[in-house]
């Protein structure tokens, strides 16, 4: 009776879990990436860097403010005052007003604006690279949830099979068809599967919570286990490599950094020219008005911005070296990812025959056992072999899908899935 209740409870628990999963938001891989693109907290933080870079354009477009300067000189000896005058009389004071404005020469303002715009492009490409890395993490976590959900399903199937056999063997034991040892062996395996089921269920919950954080959502979610997510991509490694070298986000980031460096070289060279300051002077001296012109300029004997100019060239060299390094890295990554993808695809195909064989063996041994043609040991061994084959199959499926995600990441195509 106790085993019957356990069996019924297990079936109800399974259906409750299935209904709960159906009530949740069901995420395909593409939907998960799109949700992360819109809601992930790390991406929201990174996106602000684009706005910050855009404010530099506003700053670069601003012109220097005019400068108002005042100097007042007061005659301090009353004995020197003109007759019938006091401290406040203008005849005892000299006042100088200067209104000047610095001027940017040699295209300094133009180059500042150009550098700021190139920095915006760099920030945008850097954001796309952050997206690429995040999407890889989201896809890997999505696959983890898919895997543990599949593991939960096959354990539930195995548990249901063995629970039904427990009910049958209890009746057969009462009828003295089998021994108590056979019954205990069946019940022992059922209890083992019950423990595995609870562990797998907790794993599903844990992985789902981790995925929720990456997606930036609060509601419960589940994975669409029917999603194959095999998107169209070039099947030639040469096509993949060519496309990646042109479009991958880290390549675009470094190229934009080279553009920033080229603009910065022009800016630093222009800053070697002194910035003149020109204006007018209004200078009433003892109530006698004077008007003049003001002009000042640095004499570039020592400081001609030599250090920043040299640094700008070194920064360009650094960016070009980084570009060469990333190009070599991309070639290696795609070569490895494509080879691994092909291998895992072959491994997965070889499991189709194994799945059919393990199912056929289990069905035949179960039928023979119920007819008294074999022992409980043969049946339990067939049941364990079936479960191991199922688990190995989904492990191979996980490895295949991991290799596919890695190929999408290496080629940069994973960014396009979130569009």
From TrEMBL:
This is TolC family protein. One of its GO terms (molecular function) is efflux transmembrane transporter activity. PANTHER family: BLR4935 PROTEIN, OUTER MEMBRANE CATION EFFLUX PROTEIN. Keywords: Signal. InterPro entries: MdtP/NodT-like (IPR010131), OMP_efflux (IPR003423). Belongs to the outer membrane factor (OMF) (TC 1.B.17) family. The keyword Signal applies. It comes from Haoranjiania flava. The keyword Signal applies. Pfam families: OEP. The lineage of its organism: Bacteria, Pseudomonadati, Bacteroidota, Chitinophagia, Chitinophagales. Residues 1-23 form the signal peptide.
């Amino acid at each position: 009776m106790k085993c019957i209740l356990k069996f019924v409870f297990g079936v109800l628990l399974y259906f409750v879990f299935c209904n709960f999963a159906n009530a949740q938001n069901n995420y395909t891989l593409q939907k998960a990436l799109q949700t992360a693109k819109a809601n992930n907290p790390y991406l929201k933080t990174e996106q602000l860097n684009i706005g910050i870079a855009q404010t530099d354009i506003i700053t670069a477009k601003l012109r220097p403010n005019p400068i108002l300067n005042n100097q007042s000189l007061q005659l301090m000896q009353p004995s020197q005052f003109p007759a019938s005058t006091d401290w406040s009389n203008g005849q005892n004071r000299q006042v100088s007003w200067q209104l000047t404005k610095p001027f940017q020469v040699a295209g300094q303002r133009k180059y500042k604006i150009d550098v700021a715009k190139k920095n915006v492009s760099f920030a945008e490409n850097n954001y796309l690279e952050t997206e690429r890395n995040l999407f890889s993490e989201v896809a890997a976590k999505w696959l983890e949830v898919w895997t543990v959900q599949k593991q939960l399903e096959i354990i539930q199937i195995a548990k249901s099979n063995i629970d039904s056999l427990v009910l049958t063997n209890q009746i057969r034991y009462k009828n003295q068809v089998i021994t108590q040892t056979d019954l205990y062996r069946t019940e022992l395996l059922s209890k083992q599967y019950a423990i595995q089921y609870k562990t797998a269920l907790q794993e599903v919950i844990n992985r789902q919570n981790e995925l929720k954080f990456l997606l930036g959502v609060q509601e419960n979610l589940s994975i669409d286990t029917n999603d194959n997510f095999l998107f169209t991509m070039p099947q030639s490694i040469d096509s993949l490599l060519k496309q990646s070298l042109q479009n991958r986000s880290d390549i675009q980031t470094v190229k934009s950094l080279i553009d920033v460096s080229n603009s910065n070289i022009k800016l630093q060279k222009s800053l070697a020219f002194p910035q003149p300051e020109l204006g007018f002077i209004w200078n009433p001296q003892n109530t006698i008005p004077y008007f003049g012109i003001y002009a000042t300029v640095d004499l570039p004997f020592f400081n001609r911005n030599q250090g920043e100019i040299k640094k700008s060239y070194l920064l360009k060299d650094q960016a070009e070296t980084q570009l060469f390094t990333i190009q070599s890295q991309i070639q290696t990554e795609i070569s490895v990812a494509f080879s691994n993808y092909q291998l895992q695809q072959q491994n997965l195909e070889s499991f189709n025959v194994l799945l059919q064989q393990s199912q056929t063996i289990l069905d035949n041994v179960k039928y023979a056992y119920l007819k008294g043609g074999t022992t409980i040991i043969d049946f339990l061994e067939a049941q364990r072999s079936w479960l191991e084959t199922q688990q190995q199959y989904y492990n191979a499926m996980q490895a295949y899908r991991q290799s596919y995600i890695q190929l999408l990441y290496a080629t940069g195509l994973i960014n396009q899935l979130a569009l």
